């Protein structure tokens, strides 16, 4: 049971962020399908925006985030520039990663976002290591690592979580459960009771939250962040949501019932749910509409600017490989 | 100048680096008790359990966690125990560590040393004996080094710890006990080979323990009136093309010798480079020595079937000289 009534301003910010993420990804999908400007795969998180907005609302700029191949929302919510992100998706100069990473490797170290990852589950051990360094250096940042439900069947899930518990690291593992592992239903390929139960078996505190309820996620995360900042042990948060698109923007998702996504949208769209909460708490329809329109306008503009940006200079293909034995001097 | 074993030279390098730089720390299985080969002995007592950190038998987590820690301001020394076990952390090394700086457009660095003791070690069989240096040389983003002497295991490890790139540091576990004088003031420059023995008749290029065998071979050849030059490459990426090309220009004869499997080995890269740049100056056929493409056995006689020996290097040198144009 949640209500924005107790914190109207937070509720507005959460909706605003979800609207921005949705608008960004809608434009990214248009850029891919309509404009043929996104040449590689993109993995939209449409329908999953509540996790990004609710979690990042409670993180500081210096806190560390690691994410997945489906990480646009997390990155935007952590504070990355929408324009730099769109340029990255289009492989352009001025992209977050200079056009070298694309959607799957989006990162913005200036806002503590240490990278999406093209390998499922790979960030779990890396995130544990970031938390390990924070402990060694004696500073008080916290680390959040988001992975999907498919990742819990990879080895790094066990190795990284065990590591975090053994070394008592300031990290929150979030399983953003959208119910699909690429194009297969995760439940059909997963033994036992899933992420939370596995975390509990390692002695880790584990919380389950409605992954489409942004207010509940923000409340839960506020409590977890406070515990971690006070030196608490690592925790896991299981947020069940739903992936409305296919695995990639090009995947028609014919492997699931035709009406499954539309039914989910009707019942559980996190943006619609938050609008209803804010309306009930007294926000005007006009203001809610303006949040939507502002987000749309921002992202339409961002796509236009990104489209007008040149591709990176050819020689950057050889830059930032390594200092010693760099291809800039060793190229044949 | 102290006389140190190959093992203790590495230990001194870690100790000296950790004294100088508080962000250097070591992580791996059994480090607290000194490491499986004793190469961390006494460091726990000096630096404590946070900086000489034990780890669960979780190679992927050791490698991945060290990488995460490297990206935010520490300099981890990762101990993989045996190079064979590092294969459990291949994604972390190849897909993550080697690629991060490039993939993120230069936003990150991974200043870390990945120690992987490699090579034949009596009767350790197929999963504790491999030399896979050529694999790593194939991966953009990695520096790959193979020290073969106590001096190099000091100077090269100091340089690797100070390096901002990830360095795959391949010590040979068959030579932990060899001793030599170590000058702590001697600096190593990546990509600079060492001429272990000067000569004018034939060039022998090698690295790691096989470079020691090449020096023995050169001594035997000198008894036969053959003056061999031995080049210890020391690092495979980058590797010292100039030293090899200059030597071959002088001798006109090339032997490349390594312990790892010959097929697809780094020796092929050296031979191809010499063929491209100086093939017209060769006076005899190139000889390339490496292990047959078979697996290391447990039984000592079978193990020896895969071993490149100093006698084989002598024979190879004689062959290229006999078949001179």
TrEMBL record, chain B:
Its cofactor is thiamine diphosphate. Residues 4-177 form the Transketolase-like pyrimidine-binding domain. Keywords: Oxidoreductase, Thiamine pyrophosphate. InterPro entries: THDP-binding (IPR029061), Transketo_C/PFOR_II (IPR009014), Transketolase-like_Pyr-bd (IPR005475), Transketolase_C (IPR033248). This is Alpha-ketoacid dehydrogenase subunit beta. One of its GO terms (molecular function) is oxidoreductase activity. SUPFAM superfamilies: Thiamin diphosphate-binding fold (THDP-binding), TK C-terminal domain-like. It comes from Sneathiella litorea. It comes from the Bacteria.
